[in-house]
Amino acid sequence: MSKKRPDEIIIARNRRARHDYELLQVFEAGLVLTGTEVKSLRQGRASIGEGYVTVLDGEAFLMGAHIPPYVHGNRFNHEPVRPRKLLLKIREIARLDLKLREQGLTCVPTQLYFKLGWAKLEFALARGRKSYDKRYSELEKINRREARSFSPKI
What we know:
Blueprint: E1 8-13, H1 16-20, E2 21-31, H2 35-42, E3 52-56, E4 59-63, E5 84-87, H3 90-100, E6 105-115, E7 118-128, H4 131-149
């Protein structure tokens, strides 16, 4: 995940993504949203933990993400869980579609944020980890932390 910059307001993060998946390539895409979805996101309400990205008919979509209805919305409020179109270049979509057809690869959203006022989704092409892979990566993380904290005095 990228560091927080002053022009970014992070709405939701998927912390389990780095634990459950090996992230291979990271993408950034704009989202096609309705007005009440944007207002709900500005209140900081969203969940992308169950979401995934797929390519249908040459277009990329975010599926399974939950943006709750806007509190002050009326009868024209949006559906909380619906496919949301992602704004990517044609070449990026083609490359993504080709990679998703490979066995064992998927696209998981890592964070949802506003960048200069525009809603953006960061997602990654990922491969699922086995339980022993997770234990190994946890052990590596602990070893790196210990090595950093140990500083010999000269």
